[in-house]
Design goal:
The protein has 151 residues and is α+β, with helices and mostly antiparallel strands. The protein folds into 2 domains: 78 residues, 2-Layer Sandwich (GMP Synthetase, Chain A, domain 3), CATH 3.30.300.180; 35 residues. The protein has 6 helices and 3 strands; from the N terminus they run ααααββαβα. A 3-stranded mixed beta sheet has the order 1-2-3. Strand 2, helix 5 and strand 3 form a beta-alpha-beta unit.
């Protein structure tokens, strides 16, 4: 007599079913916004705006400046529509933007961001033509501060 093996389910399907049983309010579905955010809004917006949290259908999005906050205000209905389309259900009912420090998102291409051009090194040879000691000290301080700011 042959053994009857039950059909094998994919781990993702089993986890999905289990999580739905454990989350009767459906709140886990709200967090589907994070994986699709960068693709929905595009690289430029993703570098300047990232979702922080979602509560009762309101998505809170941190933006890099007041200018971005104002610009995205005009686009929030479109963004919500696209997010909901990507999720397959109406999850995002409103978007609230606030200014803060935006972490750089992971790139979609997997490539590291382009490197900054290297700052020229300041050494005594570069300051050779500057004879005034006060100007020489000021230039050294300026280059030191510039190096710290960009480093």
């Amino acid at each position: 007599m042959a053994k009857h093996n039950p059909p094998i389910e994919k781990l993702a399907e089993v986890l999905d079913k289990s999580l739905k049983r454990l989350d009767p309010s459906g709140r886990l579905g709200e967090y589907g916004v994070w994986p699709i955010w960068n693709d929905v809004v595009g690289d430029t917006i993703a570098r300047n705006a990232q979702p922080e949290k979602i509560r009762q259908g309101t998505l809170f999005v941190k933006v890099s400046s007041p200018v971005w906050m104002q610009q995205l205000q005009y686009m929030k209905d479109t963004i919500a529509e696209k997010l909901n389309g990507g999720l397959g259900r109406e999850t995002v009912k409103n978007i609230f933007f606030f200014v803060g420090t935006v972490e750089a998102p992971e790139g979609r291409s997997g490539k590291p961001p382009p490197a900054r051009p290297e700052q020229p090194k300041l050494d005594e040879a570069a300051l050779g033509p500057v004879k005034d000691p006060e100007i020489r000290r000021a230039l050294k301080r300026l280059f030191t501060r510039l190096g710290k700011r960009q480093g």
